[in-house]
Write a structure and sequence with these properties.
The chain contains 13 helices and twelve strands. With 442 residues, it is of the alpha/beta class. It has two domains: 339 residues, TIM Barrel (Alpha-Beta Barrel); 64 residues, no CATH class. Strands 1-2-3-4-7-8-9-12 form an eight-stranded parallel barrel, surrounded by five helices. A two-stranded antiparallel sheet has the order 5-6. A two-stranded parallel ribbon has the order 10-11. It starts with 5 loop residues before the first strand and ends in an 18-residue tail after the last helix. 46% of the residues are buried. The mean pLDDT is 93.
């Protein structure tokens, strides 16, 4: 019996490519087109995908990815999507560096109720230093400090989600008892970064708590993911790298008293597909020509906190820029520098590769399906977060041609048997820390 493959779709407006908005395959205003998001979500649900995933950021400038300049706030968008879907999970990104635990715990608990147990929170610490200028919180904290803050923040949120035991609200009209006083719990947290009394003013959901998603890739991020993460989003691009990451996170999770089954590892999947390899190659060329080199340099610079690469020679080795990027997307910038150094890449080659990556998941429908199954079988992944370069015909082709192969082979079950996001990801109900009774599995 094959292992169930968990699948989600990352919706970044028109797509993951920085110039996906230029493609006639999608609405040019896809990042703020609710109909587009509904269409993508409902197609994903019909195909049996486990969740939709909304990314976010808190800092823009003139060099930002165009459709990042004008996009929906995740929780607002997901609340709207909850009303036009029934079974698919709803995952949104919110920063622990530039928000407050009580507000965010309440918002995700609300989304969980609105969707009947389908909410997930992608915890990020906000890599871009420019984010600090938009909030009254002082300078952008260093990488390690952001994770220290996030650790306490998530502990507070989890505590607030346990404010009420599962059967606290009795609503007895005859006796006038609305809730059981002994089943309400104040957190009374006093910590290094947060002081939060509680209780949260909303009940627990049918999945206990929203699912914690995380994308830790640096050593600090991996430790955080192993402690708190339940679904881990990673950008590993080769089988060997993904296997090493998979082992690392699951091994470290055991040090926190967690079992391997309590965490699912979900690499990003940016497939380029066709009925033939020639069709796939033609599609790649179309996507590649959505961008010119100046835009690619700006895209590359975003990972280095919008560093300006334009003064450097394009066709000479990737420049030595020292520690630039260490306090932004640390693991990504370290990886870019490593690849440039080991493969002797020029600045032009690095920029174009980063802006329009061509991953291992390239080729015919059967080839890509086989590669996905190989990653599952060889413990490189428990599933994937699909990030289409353009959320148009390629997305439809993936759902119509690749997913049926995975269903036929027994890797994908499109039935949503468990009813909640936790259940469909194979994660157990989150027990209330104050409540001894065990709730039936989801």
């Amino acid at each position: 019996m094959s292992k169930k493959m968990k699948l989600g779709i990352l919706i970044q407006g028109p797509g993951g490519h920085m110039n996906s908005w230029k493609s006639e395959d999608v609405p040019a205003d896809g990042s703020i087109n609710l109909g587009h998001y509904i269409n993508i979500t409902q197609k994903a649900e019909q195909a049996g995908l486990d969740f939709v995933f909304i990314a976010d950021g808190l800092h823009i400038n003139e060099q930002s990815i165009p459709h990042f300049l004008n996009r929906f706030e995740p929780i607002t968008l997901l609340s709207a999507l909850a009303t036009v879907s029934q079974k698919i999970g709803l995952v949104g990104t919110v920063s622990t560096t530039y928000s407050e635990p009580f507000n965010i715990a309440r918002q995700f608990a609300s989304l969980d109720h609105i969707s009947n147990g389908r909410a997930g929170w992608n915890v990020v610490t906000s890599p871009l230093e420019g984010s600090a200028a938009n909030f009254n919180k002082g300078n952008h904290p260093a990488h390690a400090l952001r994770y220290q803050m996030a650790d306490e923040y998530v502990e507070v949120a989890k505590g607030l989600w346990d404010s009420w035991e599962d059967d606290a609200f009795v609503r007895n009209r005859e006796t006038g008892e609305f809730f059981s006083v002994d089943k309400m719990h104040r957190l009374n947290h006093r910590g290094e970064f947060f002081n939060v009394q509680g209780p949260l003013n909303i009940a627990r959901s049918i999945q206990g708590q929203p699912v914690i998603f995380q994308a830790g890739a640096s050593k600090t991020g991996i430790r955080f993911a192993a402690k708190h993460g339940e679904a881990i989003f990673t950008n590993k691009t080769t089988l060997a790298e993904a296997q090493e990451y998979y082992r690392s996170v699951k091994t470290q999770a055991a040090k926190h008293g967690r079992s391997r089954e309590e965490i699912v590892i979900l690499p990003a999947l940016s497939p380029i597909i066709g009925a033939t390899e020639e069709e796939a190659q033609a599609t790649y060329q179309e996507i590649k020509h959505l961008i010119h080199i100046k835009e690619a340099l700006h895209y590359l610079g975003r990972y280095f906190d919008h560093f300006d690469f334009t003064p450097f020679p394009l066709d000479e080795p990737f420049p030595d820029i020292g520690e630039v990027g260490r306090n932004s997307f640390q693991s990504t910038t370290d990886e870019i520098k490593r690849l440039a150094r080991e493969e002797g890449l020029t600045l032009r080659e690095v920029a174009l590769r980063v802006a329009t990556p061509k991953s291992e998941f390239f080729g015919t429908y059967e080839q890509v399906a086989d590669k996905m199954m190989e990653w599952i079988d060889k413990e490189a992944a428990d599933g994937f977060v699909i990030s289409m370069h353009v959320l148009g015909q390629q997305y439809d082709d993936f759902l119509q041609h690749v997913i049926p192969i995975l269903i036929e082979k027994g890797y994908v079950d499109p039935s949503y048997q468990k009813g909640t996001l936790r259940g469909n990801l194979g994660l157990s109900f989150k027990e209330n820390r104050y409540q001894k009774k065990t709730k039936p599995s989801l």
